[in-house]
Amino acid sequence: MKTYQSYGGFENITEFVADCRDLRNDIVESLQRDSSVSTILEGMADAVYIKSSDGTVLDSNQAYRSAFTPGISPTGRQGSAYLDEKIAAVSNASDQLIMSGADTLIFNHFGHDAAGKAISMRTFKASLLGLGQPRHCILGLTRIRFMETTDSHLRLMPLFGYWEIFSKLKIRDQKIAAAVARGEKTKHIADSLSVSEKTIENARNSILKKLQLDHPIDLIKLLVRLQDSGFGDFGV
């Protein structure tokens, strides 16, 4: 069974950007000539794919298929039908950004391949709009790295679950959580938000419950970890 490559040079962002720009130039030139892009895609070691405006895969290479749809063609299907849930969510959000006017995107993310193996990814997406090929809208390239249990990225994965919950809290609750983590007194938080102390206490307890934390000190530790890992700046 064919496997895809583990990249030792994953952190070399300059090399990655150069590879992506070269690929985009080749794809743009091919589409403008109304030529097939399949040969270009198959020449790439990274997972490469082209999508329509609604996220339907129009073309992909063997590296992409081996990683995410072994034995099944992704052509004509949307990523949500076969991708890991976390990967699909990021994929859909980045597709929407491209269709909303973003020219290029580069981002790191995490998830699982088709075999359920934890992977770290760096993805490049670019707009293909305006090239005379109305169905070809989004070019994607994903560089994949397998993750071992000693990998620092893998140790971060539980934080993504906490961050997903925290980011969905109401803005006021996020402010309350950050204030608690900074050690601010309940009265001070209540005064700053023009609410009662009881409201702050209820909100704090609700936040702890949603995050499945037992004590405010656990909230402080969590927000410190999230801040140190680059998820946000809470002033802690």
From TrEMBL:
InterPro entries: Sig_transdc_resp-reg_C-effctor, Tscrpt_reg_LuxR_C, WH-like_DNA-bd_sf. Pfam families: GerE. It comes from Rubripirellula tenax. PROSITE patterns: HTH_LUXR_1. It comes from the Bacteria. Coiled coil: none annotated. This is Bacterial regulatory protein, luxR family. One of its GO terms (molecular function) is DNA binding. Residues 183-210 form the HTH luxR-type domain. GO terms for biological process: regulation of DNA-templated transcription.
